[in-house]
Write a structure and sequence with these properties.
It is elongated and about 100 Å long. The model has no long low-confidence stretch (mean pLDDT 87). The longest helix is centred in the middle third of the chain and has 9 residues. It contains 3 helices and 6 strands. Helix content is 15%, strand content 13%. It has 2 domains: 54 residues, no CATH class; 71 residues, Ribosomal Protein L15, Chain: K, domain 2, CATH 3.100.10.10. It is of the alpha/beta class.
């Protein structure tokens, strides 16, 4: 066997189709590209993310999010005002479960903050995630106690 005797295996090599070489060739005239339109052109492929003339998704995003930058890591709170704690009796412990039973939370998954709107006249034991300064002073003036609960903070590496 010599070097010039070596031939590729039958069917492993295939001649490329020569398009656009006349009607008899089988791929003449439009050469399989259809008639007109983007696909018939020389550089007839759309760029990545092209959406047929609509404003592309990634350019639409800033409008969807609204004006300016809004943080994705922003913590949403269940806001509870002092005036909403009127129904609790003196020496009662106010915690996430009692607030949920009283239907004062919008979404129990979020942390709870006590705000100072209204007055409190009873000594309450409050266990929540956050309390405003003015609400703290009003609660302590009425003889109440505040204990802050831990809230899982998002880790940057998660």
């Amino acid at each position: 066997m010599e070097l010039h005797d070596i031939v590729p295996q039958e069917g492993s090599k295939k001649k490329r189709k020569r398009v656009g070489r006349g009607i008899a060739a089988g791929q003449g005239k439009t050469a399989g590209r259809g008639t007109k339109g983007m696909g018939a052109r020389v550089r007839g492929r759309n760029r990545l993310y092209h959406q047929g003339g609509n404003l592309p998704f990634f350019r639409r995003l800033p409008f969807v999010r609204g004006k300016g930058f809004s943080s994705f890591n922003k913590v949403k709170y269940n806001e509870v005002n002092l005036k909403q704690l009127v129904e609790f009796t003196s020496k009662t412990e106010v915690n996430p479960t009692t607030l949920e039973e009283a239907h004062l939370l919008r979404d129990p998954r979020y942390p709870i903050v006590i705000l100072a709107e209204g007055e409190v006249k009873k000594a309450l034991r409050i266990r929540v995630h956050r309390v405003s300064k003015s609400a703290r002073s009003k609660i302590e003036a009425a003889g109440g106690k505040i204990e802050l609960l831990d809230w899982p903070v998002k880790d940057v590496n998660e």
